[in-house]
Amino acid sequence: MDYVLLALGLVLLISGADGLVRGAARLAASIGIPTIVIGLTVVAFGTSAPELAVSINSAIAGKSELAMANVVGSNIFNVLFILGLAAVITPLVISRQLIRQDVPIMVLVSALVFYLASDGVLSFFECALLVALLVIYTAFLFVQGRKSENAKSDAPGGDELAELTQGNHPAWQSLLWLVVGLALLIAGASLLVNSAVNIARTFGVSEAVIGLTILAIGTSLPEVVTSIVASIKGQRDIAVGNVVGSNTFNLLAVLGISGVVSFDGLTANTQLVQQDLPIMLGVAILTLPLVITGSTLSRSEGALFFGLYVLYTALLVGAAKGEAWVSSLMSLTWYVILPVTVVVVVTSVIRDVARRRKLS
């Protein structure tokens, strides 16, 4: 029964996020906010809405470890799985803005959260700091979007946003979409958290493991759909921007708001502090040289990302179940896979430097 409730919770979450984005986008458009600003803010919040709903529900229910694990797992999944799969489908072109601004911001915010949570706690005041940075970041995006000369064409998810906002939509209709979407999010989050906790108890694994796997993948489904569809349609910059923006919002909005709402902040167990948070930061840093080299994420690099996520998940699940092969796979990871990854990244950087010297 818990699996049925888990699936139902996911359906309600995704439906709620869609309704929330639809209502908010139409309301924003009706008061004259440019499309690019809606894309950078409303859509970014919307794709992070499932994580926000689940984390707030978890924090209020006293399961703050689940709230933290959900965000950490989602950010790892977003970069390694979604970007990896999207790049395998078609090499992803990285815009100058993503390289110079958005990816570095994601890395810096990841480093900040890693530092703040290194003691196993994100206090109320630290979460409030994240919320304050969220306000500053959103205001920055808003001002930047208003100044953009290509507001229509450069908006993340431009085609979908045009379909959402075109035509005359009564304010009451947009508000209804907003309210219904929010209600579905709340209901879906409650079902998802309760069923996930029950499943964790059944298998004897920690809530953090469930948050890093089932909840992280489930709440990242909007990002999966958006990035994969954008990649197939040839909107490759959107596929990358969606993931990068969502990761930044996850850290600032989801962790910050859920920690403030709970009044007690958020906690992280030993595994999260010593393993998963460092992996989240490492994955964020890994994107820097790969997106800078040639301004593309190639199919081979995408396959590398995807393979690393499969490896991470195997180690996570295997360790949780106490499998004997975990130690062997861990040794293989340290002495073979990670060195190969470093060689691939360094080779990409060297080739890019050589290419640029020839061009100059």
Give a verbal description of the structure.
The chain is mainly alpha-helical. It has a single domain (2-325), classed as A middle domain of Talin 1, CATH 1.20.1420. 83% of the residues lie in helices and 2% in strands. It has helices at 2-30, 35-60, 64-89, 96-116, 124-147, 158-165, 171-203, 207-219, 221-233, 236-262, 270-292, 299-321, 326-359; strands spanning 92-93, 121-122, 266-267, 296-297. The strands form 2 sheets. A two-stranded antiparallel ribbon has the order 1-4. α1 (2-30) runs antiparallel to α2 (35-60), α3 (64-89) crosses α8 (207-219) and α4 runs parallel beside α10 (236-262). It starts with a helix and ends with a helix.
Structural class by sheet pairing and helices = mainly alpha
CATH class: Mainly Alpha
Number of helices: 13
Main sheet: strands, sense, barrel: 2 strands, antiparallel
In short:
Helix content is 83%, strand content 2%. It has 13 helices and 4 strands.
Keywords:
single chain; 360 residues; mainly alpha; A middle domain of Talin 1; two-stranded antiparallel ribbon; 13 helices; 4 strands; 83% helix; globular; membrane; transmembrane helix; calcium, potassium:sodium antiporter activity; NaCa_Exmemb
Strands, helices and their partners?
Blueprint: H1 2-30, H2 35-60, H3 64-89, E1 92-93, H4 96-116, E2 121-122, H5 124-147, H6 158-165, H7 171-203, H8 207-219, H9 221-233, H10 236-262, E3 266-267, H11 270-292, E4 296-297, H12 299-321, H13 326-359
Antiparallel strand pairs: 1-4, 2-3
